[in-house]
Amino acid sequence: MVHLDSVFVSFLLIGRDPDTSLTGTPPQKGGVFCAIILTSKINSMVKTYTLTITEAQAQALAYACDVLQRVQLGQWREIIDWLPLQKPIDYEELHQDQKIIGSILSKHMIDNIDGQFSSLGIGSSNLPDNNGVLYDLYKVITRELSMERLIDEGKILNKNVPRNQLPWTVNFDEIHRWGNEPLAKIEKVKDE
After folding, report:
1. For a Cys staple, 62 with which of 14, 80, 141, 158, CB 3.0–4.6 Å?
2. Angle (CA) 176 180 186, round 5°
3. What per-residue confidence (pLDDT) applies to 45?
4. How many domains does the chain have?
5. What is the pTM of this model?
């Protein structure tokens, strides 16, 4: 069995077809594919896998990594936006219920964190080994999709742009590795 914390993931972006944009820019239509190469270290042996996914699937993977990583930090409220909530919903009642749930959970969490005003920090020794890997994957995917969006919109010609010429959002910050695996690599292969 291979555990997630022993897997190195490389992403090769091939095109565009987002349902949503990680940069807040309206989605564009077109065929997009992404190849993911998973490298696993088992008994000094390296195994490599390739998975081809669309840009929308890459975004879904980024969101999944982000949500799980945040839940591991104790930020359990991050799941609310992903739950199948009733429509319409009484948000005031929902927020009151979240406070009650938070006070119950905080009795059982490390340092009595409540998931709203307190949580563990990335790099905490109390986190699962794969927490940093999840965070790194989220950052690598988000940065690449954001850079490709700027190129597609004609705002930059390529990714070799100084940081001070990119939008001032965290999507374009240099990625610092938090996980125990090398940073994943992602690159555009071709447009379809």
Report:
1. 141
2. 55
3. 64
4. 1
5. 0.72
